[in-house]
Amino acid sequence: MRTIPLLASARAACALAMGLSFSHAMLASAEGHRFAGADFTQGKVFIVAADGRVEWEHPAPSCDELWVLPNGNLLFTTGHGVKEVTREKKIVFSYDSKSEIYACQRLPNGNTFVGECNTGRLLEVGLSGKIAKEIRLLPDGRDGGHLYMRNARRLANGRYLVAHYGDQVVREYDGDGKGVREIPAASGPHSVVRLPNGHTLIACGDLVKDGARVFEVDLTGRTVWEIRSHDLPGINLKLMTGLHRLPNGNTVMSNWQGHDKSGAGPQIIEVTPEK
Asked: CA 84: distance to chain centroid?
């Protein structure tokens, strides 16, 4: 097991992103990992070198989702929107909404997937900002509220994975928005990832006392791997948010210290399959 120090400033470190996301920026080295992160409380996204130096940062209010794109640009949420920013800090894509937004993803066709929390809309947005596809998960324009949706993903087969935080369940929808599968996720799923082997990796929050965990289910819904607080000596899991399965089988997880838990534990944890 490895815990990764984030920033020199304890204040900055303890506020580390509610939705820390790991993507193409994760590069293995002898010292550690180079990674991208989002500081939800301080409102910034950043890139940290393997030795802990902050290489680059940019304002990002209430950021909960972050991708490093193949071209080096950063795609991230901004509370009520999504932006793509170059390393020269030029904004090349922007989408704004009245709804809270916790999910974004660049699609192979160049469009950007956006998950709107309150409206329950799954959107595909073109570079011009025009909506190319819209799926409504809530009937009659109902407001799902703050807890309706967190992370969401459009899968390669055209389906969608949605972390319904307040309902404490992950739902899989087909390309038309029809539900095809449910995975119970007690304590509130924050992030969900479909792995290459078809398994689903889920990070859960703090809706249930001591309920924070990361777990993996197979195609039948059976839990085949999980991490809870008692599995990691000396570490308490508070609210599990971003997660990333590395090529070597290790799992990197972000452990948000918000909701009055600031400074209570490490923000990023890497564990082997054997924990």
From this structure: 16
